[in-house]
């Protein structure tokens, strides 16, 4: 529950995120939800609708009380850090609007967050999924669609939202124009075998060729294929072929990046491919590759898993 003044700046902030920062709708919605979660606590904590003055004058003790309540409710540190980041973003907006000069939120730090490594599939798991996903579809064109989608996710490292947002005119001669986070367009290579899979799917699709700007991947009724359908296909595949729960559409992106690192591909090139704003995000895949080498060593070396007797 917010006072009118704080509600006004919240609305201005969300408009700023969308129109100036040009964040995707999902990102703006996530900021909104995190802001609502945090301010709901402080409204209950102060026992009234949270005002702008209360927000500006909150203390470190107040913020610690919020963090402690999150911990009590078993939210993990990473989730709490995300909410804190949203509130810091809002605070910086207030400073930009000359509403306040500084805020204790900006210097507040949580405990160290353990680095969470991506969990890719193995080479054989990824390739087998691309080769066999079509067998689960009830119609041949849907199977061809699923196969083309997976081939694209694995070869180009796209996010599922990026792949499903592609239109037929996103396809150029030997690359794709991909609209990523922050509405930034990047060009990713379109491998010949992936292009062949897409062509095979379009040749079977009852909706292909309807319009130049139509979505590339269609649902059964001709509309844009939804992420939930892609997730459903992965669940069916996991159950049928006994893959772990970590085998998701996003795991194909992780697999692409990790396997490129294992092949000694240039990190900057992988950063460009994935559309990472920071190289540090890409460097996580180096850690994954090193962990893989360590695990293989322990498993296969004659003394890797043995203790001296």
> Which strand order spans the largest sheet, edge to edge or round the barrel?
1-2
Average pLDDT for all residues: 85
Q: Strand count, sense and closure of the main sheet?
A: 2 strands, antiparallel
Percent strand: under 5%
Enumerate how many helices there are, as a single number.
13
CATH architecture of the largest domain: Orthogonal Bundle
CATH H level, superfamily name of the largest domain: Intergrase catalytic core
Number of beta strands: 2
Outline the structure in words.
The protein is mainly α. The chain folds into 2 domains: 4-107, DNA polymerase, domain 1, CATH 1.10.150; 123-298, Intergrase catalytic core (hpI Integrase, Chain A). The protein contains 13 helices and 2 strands, in the order ααααααααββααααα. A hairpin with a 5-residue loop joins β1 (175-179) and β2. The radius of gyration is 23 Å and the shape is elongated. It starts with a helix and ends in a 9-residue tail after the last helix. The relative contact order is 0.09. The model has no long low-confidence stretch (mean pLDDT 85).
